[in-house]
Amino acid sequence: MGTQVDQVSGKWVADAEAVPLGDSVRPAARMRRKGDYHRLRLRLYALMMATDGALMAAVFVAANLIRYGRPLESYGVNIFALLFPIYLAIGLNGRAWSLEALTSPRRSAARAVQSLLLAIAVATALFFSLKIGEDFSRLVFGVGAALSLALIAAGRLRLGQAIGRRCGWTFRREVMIVDGLPAERTGSERLIDARREALSPVIDDPVMLHRLGEMLRGCERLILSCPPERRAAWSRMLAGANVDVEILAPELDQLGALGLRRHGTRSTLLVDRGPLGLRQRAIKRAFDLALSASALLVLIPLFGLIGLAIRLESSGPVFFRQTRMGRGNCLFCVLKFRTMRAEAADADGARSADRDDDRVTRVGRLLRRTSLDELPQLFNVLKGEMSLVGPRPHALGSTAEELPFWAIDERYWDRHAIKPGLTGLAQVRGLRGATTSRSHVTDRLKSDLEYLDDWHLGRDVAILARTLGVMVHLNAY
Length: 477
What we know:
single chain, 477 residues, alpha/beta, 3 domains, four-stranded parallel β-sheet, 49% helix
């Protein structure tokens, strides 16, 4: 396949052996045009917005009925008229309606809940700052907000599943070109065998460029698999394809490359980055401050009673302090209620407490059994050393099968890319207690890395709610 210059006209023409243009267009005829996918996504976003709005409106109608016995009472109507636009504005910024929300109903529900929580906070601040009293009912607002969170989350899950099945979980056109280097499809990508289709990266062949352009008509993402020596040629050829182009580079897998960046005129590989952006860190920190400060105000009397019980049973300080590893691999001093005899306390954490540990006092055993010994870490949260939810910080001397934790799995240090937590995903899954085997470490590490990989405020709320159910646990001793 090639082209040549006509000696009379001076124009490029196809060789006699070239594949007819009509034959090259046929594969593209089966592809939905890009505009069709854009319109499809816009219609689905509009459907999700309308469903969210209908559920929220129904909830405030129900709240009016509960409080006043009349569905269209102005209190609920006014609150809905203020809350829903705020929710839309925050949701649009927080990608509550996005391609990701279409492909993952769970993530869609989480983003909707996160946006609605922020909208509720903003609406509450407006109500109190503007001193709106006549048109505001706390009961209607409270019932409506709580039910809206539950129904919108459930609605997103059900609607997302229905949309996904109806559309075959395909919301944009993706194409994979394979040129001599095998690659596996991971979804609904349309596979093009370059050799079978007589495609090659020839930049000075307009007919070849035309054939490739027709094949990519409607494509929004292109994945290319080819030998390293052909990548530069393919890159030049695809530069004007008007599509996102990604090249598979298996040799970089062991580096865990996340992307490509620039340093001056040189290209660099991004191999790691913080799991949370500035906006996400701000949201998480505001959430931590609000809840930890409120909890400490409520729990001060309980702190006093626990401190008194500890001092009455054994001499020594009420609090136990231990150096642990925090975010960015920086050390900090974690705070707990003392549960062991002061002279037997293990500052390095070289020995994990077991079920019949003779170092633990009677009050300490009760505190450990109910997880109340962890409550002073709320002060660590206030100081910014910890978060309410995150990987649990480990003592520096912690071992399993006589090996330090970091020697068991090389990914161990990855968990320190985020603040350690008062509770975490591993804890609510029942992964607690002594770490005596390698599997205890790897199982907890998997949960920690899963949490880092998919953080959102809705997950923090869910983990805190589930923590209440596992505070008393068989492995808590």
